[in-house]
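Sample pair:
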Amino acid sequence: MTIRPARSRATISRRHPAGRARSLLAGRSRPRVSGDGHRPRPASRGAGYRPRPSYRGAGRRRLAAPTAAGAWLWKLLAALLAAGAIAATVALSIHARGQQCPATRAEIISASQVTREEGGSPGPPAGLVSRADQLAACGGGQLVLVRGAGQGGVLAGPVRSLRIYREPGEPENDPTARDNKVQQLVTRAFQSAQAARVPGAGRDVIGLLATVSSELGPGRNDVWLRTLGLPTVNPADARVLMATDPAQAVASIPGPLPSLHGARVHLILSPPAGNQPRFNPATDAWRRLFMVDLLRRLGADVVSVTEDDALESPAGDAQPAPVVANLPDPTPQPPAAPRPHRTYIAKLDSSALFLPDLARFTTSDARVLAELRPIINGWRRGLYSHVTVVGHCARFGPAGTAVRLSEQRAAAVARLLRLHGVSAVTATGVGYSQPLPPDPASASNRVVIVTAYPKN
């Protein structure tokens, strides 16, 4: 009789999907054995045949367990990363809020000069409302409006709190509603400030900044300063100070001067109005650097400088201010032709040819070469033995600073001469130690003198 081997449950599970699932959960069943305790052998495969045990089910069990554990580990890792990201976001939000929200009382100060010769804007400057929103979100702050003309500055209305309430005693927590109320508060403040009368005629920049200084709070102070940038009231009168460079002019202003330490100033340069003529590039550059140098001397942090190009009409009752003449334009003038056996002298106007406070030319080298061309041509013809370049400054500010600037400008001119073949050139700077007529403090001293000496 032929004995057929009995199928094990494991074999059945490998052939049937349902059985495969049960074998993975319950483990592989032991195969049936014959009565004598030995596993039956198929007669058709010979007496020596022993079936190879199958590890397919066991292999699946060994792979399935690590796969499930790996999925669990990945889920745990993802959860930890998500928790870390949330914690980092919260920390950054708290840090950013700590940077925006000052620990002490913060103020916004808007200071404007109002005269008939400078355009004025009735609305708040760019950036002021945004800063007011930040302070309101932090729970407070103050808005101060100052206006000035020829005699310092005055408060243009009461100091306004930026603490916004929904109901009396209940802070407004809705961002949209709070922003709308801040916008309305600032707009009304600037509208009512137009009625404030400012005393004195002229443009008293130092007096206006003194009023700003008296209103600075102990916390962070953002100051928006709007002015033409050309004062006409002592101790700072641009009609006198423009005879020298802005840094020298600022350094020459006598003290005591107001302190702006702790102020972050947003400087806005007004356009000319009334009888004040439009500014040429030299004058525009001078007033810009003058105001920046002045604010820094007072200890302020100048964070931005903008120029308002739109011509606005000042308030109807604005006081007049003197007209400030433009610096000379760098208009080319044909120089005289060199003459044999004669010394040739060329005076280069520093205010027209050099940028304020710098030894860089305002225009291309061609503009300077036009005035140096007779000396260069005479050198090529063999008329001259050597050339001297001497820089001068008007009598303002520290002597050492004037000497350094005059030396740098003389060196720039000498370098240009050497590039065009003039080999024997010496350059020196004397500052204001050797004044030229008619006045040591006049713009006639703001020159570079080039002298070409003839051969014997």
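The longest strand covers residues 384-391.
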